[in-house]
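From the pipeline queue, job 12 of 40. The input is one protein chain; the requested action is below.

Action: predict structure.
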Amino acid sequence: MAFGVARPVSAAAPADAWEGWRTARFLTLDATSGLPHATTTAIVQGSDGLMWIGSRGGLARYDGQRLKVFRQVSRDRTSLPDNYIRALLPLSNGGMLVGTNVGGAVRFDPVSNAFVALQGAAGVGIGTRILALASDGQDGALIASDHGVFRYDARHNRVVSLIEPGSDLAGGAFAVFRDADGTIFAGGDKGLFVRRPQDRAFSRVATPEIGDVWAIQRGRFGRLWIGTGAHGIFVQLSDGRFVQPRLLSGDAPLIGHRTIRAFATEPDGTLWAATDGMGLLRISTRGPFTVSAMRNIPANPASLGGDTVRDVTIDRTGRLWAATDVGASHTDPTLDSIFTVTNAMPDPRRSLADRNVRGLMVDSRDRIWIGLSNGMIDRIDRAGGTVRHLRLSGEQSGQDVKAFLELPDGTVLVGARGIVAIDPATLTPRPVAVPLPDDLPVISLARSGDLLLIGTYKGLFVWQARTRQLRQYRHADGDPTTIANNEVINIVDPGDGRPWIATPGGLSRFDPATGRFVVYRNDPADPASLPQNYTGSIVPSGGALWVGTYGGVACGTATPGGLRFRAITEAQGLANDNVAAVLPDRRGRVWTTGATGISVLDPQGRRVRVVSRRDGLPSDAYNQRVAAMTRDGDLLFGGTGGLLVLRPDRMLAAQSGRSPTLAPTDIEQDGHTLPFNPFPGQQAIRSDGHALRVAFALTDYAAPQEVHYRYRLHGFDTDWVDLPDSVPATAIYTNLPGGEYVLQLQAQIPGVHPRTVTTSVDLIVARAWHELWFVRLAMAIVGLAGVFGIVHVRTMVLRQRTRALERMVEQRTGELRSANVTLSQLASTDPLTGLANRRTLLARLEAARETAMRSGGGYAVAMLDIDHFKRVNDGYGHHTGDIVVQAVAARVAGGVRAVDCVARYGGEELAILFADSGLGDAATITERLRQAVARAVIEVDGVEIRVTISGGVAAATGDELPAAVLHRADLAMYRAKRAGRDRIELADDRDVTALEQAAVL
């Protein structure tokens, strides 16, 4: 790396085509997570693997599942001396050195869970404000404070001053660092100072005008990095010269004269700098010198928590941690196998116009076309590093863009409301003269030979441009040669001129020559049929046809009798049966997105792996069939969170060799913390066995909520105890017998590289006095002697009790019969109104349906709802609301026939089953009830209240399910609400259509 001439970030062409879009995804712990204060000031990983986070309101220890908070407690000398934590340093024995703002430095003892004060240097004192801590290379520490620089000798528990009285550092030091050879560097308001092993005092280092020094770090390639208060970052080269790259000067845009608070170095030499207001700086020192910033983006919750960063560190698994002004943020800075392009990127020029990706296509020039809501289209050109935005006008402006198709001349057809052609050079749209009726929304497009296939909600349209003929194909009930359903979700031509068509009613194969379809549907009696009728993605790959359904992935193979399917579902390990998209990679592996995850299947579909959050998967939902692959093999999936980019080879090859540890993190007995040494070979828990709680965790923070924990106590438990994933892992035992046990702890890590980590801890339970052998022998002798006397007395008593029990049985039998009658009434009756409850109504509806099917008669249903009932509750209280419900229920129940059933359906909603009635009779009675309720005056505590009701009436048709009749009546009721309330509406074809659409969706 040459520092003489600093080049801008963009000077070197990035090797990664996604370089401008790939950003880290941060997780942030803040006050809502349990931190004692939102402003974090220091962060380190302890020698036991736990993360320690200092804040302005106390100290927190984080194990991935729980935060244990330490605060100053008045009159408790073992607590923190001050809640404002400025610096932290892990000690090799599992302890922690803590520097505070006004309370000096203390040492945390992990065995006693107490803070021990450090004794100051004789005649000087280490000061009350500790600004920095660093290792002294001998299990102790170097301390920079408002009194200078000191060394803490851990072996003798004493502090020694390293400065001479009256020196330039006597007024305070801001930073301290020790080189491997023992050389100590210190920074203060007068610059940089050094003390070599042979020196007795610090001397000032000859540097350029750098001002006050706040951070010092030796990089991986031997360079010394100096962070200043307002002059940026300086670098001392191996020959002793100081240089400052232009990108790191104080007035550089990425620094803006802000204080550099801390440094952290990755194993590859990448340097991270914490700034006071400009976020994190990533400084690449290997190859071309580049500097980039990570900052908080308010619209992106996965960005850095805040721009004021007081400390930065890298844990043992390579995660980057930053102490910001709004919490502790952490991420995997090396993760490049999966990331998301959103509408809130660090560089606004590379942001999408919207985060909900509805359509997707990669064109022949490897440009990515993205369909969004409200007629918006984005195009990503990775080669040019740009995102271009286009918004369709007119009636297209309110339409989701779901379909793209590239023509041989490069023109891109877009399905919106109708079809629009876009010039790829100018992004100029123009309408396509395909005479679709009513400018239908177009949801899929495909070419088959010289035919343009257009999928809509009203069937399949085929446009022959040469003859300018448009034909429509719709589903016809009872005709198996028509399309499976009128909603054409996807069209894929495998190249033989007979395209596959996905619909919510099954999979269809279309023959344009005959206009006939072969339909594949789910048949419960045929395990080789489609697993579910709702189909979306269709992918021919590896000699098979892969189909995404709402019942899993179907892998179809051709047989003489047609396609036969094998289902891959959640039972085989699929992330989610609700499959949104299916996409093969260049190696034949099949990737699927679902409502809540991504899975990958091997080419034969026999092994399923699930991408987890620890692999970098965001918690987004993915849209139907929105998937594509770039020229270099990157997989693209669209969802509610943006455009997900997944690099399959990197994803499946990336496996960290750094194994996290699994260990107890906190042990309590009867609510009090037990001493415990966290290091291997010394892990033994000593307890009396009463109310023992052992909290344990895996020291891997990528996605702790996904790790599944269980435990087993050898010598006590017969099997593993599995813990719910939503509960912090804790082994709980009460009244354990005395003895020696082995507590086994296990963490099962999900992801594309799943693994299991197991550890064991000795548990020694002291024997109680009654468990001693001689006490037990004496108790046995006394017991035997007592048995002979008790047997005789017991026999007499049993005879008397037998007679009394016989009388009691007769009495209780009568009471039980009465109770059963009462329970039956409670199970079928609404307790507030005395009407039938929903359960009884549904049973009566099912009986009415069966009667109607046998007799050829019918039945009707009415749904009623009290208008503006919330105003009654808000204005008069819930007690008055209950009385109003009771009064209306009584009025309705008194106005129907004895054979009808009135039920409280929920809240202020009532339902009526009109047995053996048609729509007209039911509507007449319901209208009469509405008028009766409107005329009635309800008096509550001297206040007169009038209410009205709105209702919908539906009559059953054929063998229609009761739930469908109820739903149609409910839709009619809501139309009555929208029409002004206090009215009755009859269900009509609109409700049937709405019901069909709801079933489709």
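Job complete. The CA atoms of residues 411 and 425 lie 9 Å apart.
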